[in-house]
Amino acid sequence: METNFEIEENYAVRFNGTHIDLHNNFDYIGLSKNGNNISVNFKKTEGEWIKSNEFKNLNFEFKNVSYEYYENGDPEALKEDTESLGEITFFPANFREINNGIIPQVRPKKNDDLMLFFEDGKVIRIGCGEIKLTVEK
Length: 137
Description:
Strand content: over 45%
Oligomer: single chain
Largest sheet: 5 strands, mixed
Strand order of the largest sheet: 1-12-7-6-5
Number of domains: 1
Number of strands: 12
């Protein structure tokens, strides 16, 4: 897997030298599919702790998807927990039966998946050839 970002401390990414705190500063707004590609989208959250120069939107585009796994979150969870990323990790594709583990790994290995864990228990796991992060100011 190729990426244009790195994972930092399993709750943030580094993109073009900028630390992006996915847990505190962004809300998950959805996932969309287009052929063999999947987009996972986040928007800047509301709050006085957010810097004025924070990105407005983030899009993780998974290209040439070969594997998808999803777990629904708690239907009784608070709205903010359904939108809040808990952790993000690269995880080996040969351990796809494990969907609750974290590896402190900055860059993906060739056969890794990306896993996103949300505060409501939702899990998104995707295996693909490339993930391209794009941002909007």
